[in-house]
Amino acid sequence: MSATPQELKQRIEAGIPGAQAEVSGDGHHFNAVVTAAAFEGLSRIAQHRLVYEVFGSELGDRIHALSIQTRYR
Amino acid sequence: MSDQTNPMRDAIHGAIAENPVILFMKGTPEAPACGFSARTVAILNALDKPFAAVNVLPDPQIRQELSALSGWPTIPQLFVDGELVGGCDIVSEMYESGELHELLGADGPAGQDEPVQEGTAEPAPLTIENRL
Fold this sequence. Notes:
A: alpha+beta; three-stranded mixed beta sheet; B: Glutaredoxin
C-alpha cells in the first residue's frame, strides 16, 4: 500500500513532540517541511535524523524518497 | 556485530578517512542515476572543489554498510574531513546559505594537496571495489 502525504504528516507530528509538518508527494517521492521546537540547538544532521527515525526502514523502500526541510520557531 | 571482521565497512571507513571530500551516490558524477545525487554533484561542481565519489549501486552491501556506519538512511551522503555533512537536502541548504562554501573552502588543506583531482575523477569506487 503506498504512503500518502497525510499519513507522513500524521506520523511525523506523532513521532516528534510538538512538531508541525507540511508534506507533499506523489506516493513515492515526498517533501516534508517540519517545524519543531525540539530541533532548536541540534545540528541539521540531528534534526533530519529525528525525522528519518519516524520511518526507519520504510525509507528507501515503501517511502522511496523523503526530502526534508527542518525549522524551529 | 561491530566486533566482527567487516571488510566492506573497513573499506568504506578507509575511503572516508582518506578523502577529505567524498560523496557516496547513485551512479557516477558523469552519469548520476538519481535526481538527488545529480543535484548534489552539481552543487559540488559549482563550488569547483575536487571530490571523490563512490557509486553505491554496483553492490547493495556498500549502501547497507555505509548507512550502518553513518547512521544515515538515504543516498547521497557527503562527508567532509571524515564527518557526515548530510544528504541532498542539507547540502542544498548549506550551499544556498554559503555554509558549504565556507566548510569546503576554509576547513581544508583538503583539496589542494590531495591525490584526488578535478571533481570528475572517481578513484574511490575503484579503490573500494578493488579491495574486495
